[in-house]
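Deviation from plan, reported transparently: guanosine-5'-diphosphate-alpha-D-mannose complex.
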Amino acid sequence: MRVLITGITGMVGSHLADYILGHHPGVEIHGLVRWRSPIDNIAHLTGRVTLHQGDLRDLTSLITVMKAARPDRVFHLAAQSYVVTSFTAPADTLHTNVIGTTNLMDAVRWADLDPRIHICSSSEVYGQVTADEVPIRETNPLRPASPYAVSKVGEDMMALQYFLSYGLKTLRTRMFTHTGPRRGDVFAESTFAKQIAEIEAGRRPNPVQVGNLDSVRTLADVRDAARAYWLLLEKGTPGEVYNIGGDRTLTVGEILEILKGFATCPIEHAVDPARLRPSDVTLQIPDTSRFREATGWCPEIPPEDTLRDLLAYQRNRISRS
Ligand SMILES: Nc1nc2c(ncn2[C@@H]2O[C@H](COP(=O)(O)OP(=O)(O)O[C@H]3O[C@H](CO)[C@@H](O)[C@H](O)[C@@H]3O)[C@@H](O)[C@H]2O)c(=O)[nH]1
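Because the crystal trials were delayed, the predicted structure below was used instead.
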């Protein structure tokens, strides 16, 4: 079997490649990379995966990659994934996420292939929910509260539309917060871990700068997420959409306190008003029963282990810089 992973240089894509190599060694892995993308996350995979240069914004490049890789399965994990950036660069976010996904699906059609295709939507599509609307089911209304969320609604709906109109075997996931080693520095728990590691190393003073600590998130480990995505294309139903998420619900402040508990020196924190958003999604708790029933998946790694590993990752990066 041949798989193509877009976003293979990112956190989730690189962990998915690790998972496939570790559990399904007969599978041939192809990855889509932009020429300017840093490849630190997949440096250890050199010689074990085949990389293809291309860009989601460039249909011609994607058709060429599809014809070369001829995947049986496509995991589409590349995206502009940071909510805050989407407020300053909404058109760029829409272009990468909506047009880019459309280009990818068109490339599959132009190459005359029939793979199962994972389209990575997001919990953000549900927007702000009220207390009586959790846990969030796939049938909850979509109320996107950021340009990023709008882009994920667009991506999600285009994947449904290509299934309905052309029979493309798209399966959509709406993943709730997932993190771990290789997480981009900008996200809440990752910037906290990075700042703690810098304070420990004497590279910056206390306090850790934070935004809204009252938001509620259900945390999953990225390695559990990678396993979930593999199972999705093994056992899921084309045309369907699935919520995926962890078991443990925490406030962002509680996540910060867990990280502080691992620190080797006292850590203080202070709110930086620049880290507060024009609109924030403050409550995200998923109902993942549809996905669990379809695949048998359940999360295995507790948030404490995830956050310890994330802090270790940030310490390691800082010690090498
Ligand atoms: N980034 C950031 N967020 C902070 C901070 N302090 C508090 N927060 C709060 O922490 C929450 C989480 O923010 P992010 O970590 O940026 O993630 P997100 O907006 O929930 O989006 C992530 O999860 C989605 C669902 O899986 C993904 O779709 C998205 O790409 C991203 O990974 C938000 O309520 C945000 O206001 C901070 O210093 N930085």
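The chain has a mean pLDDT of 97. We consider this an acceptable substitute for the interim report.
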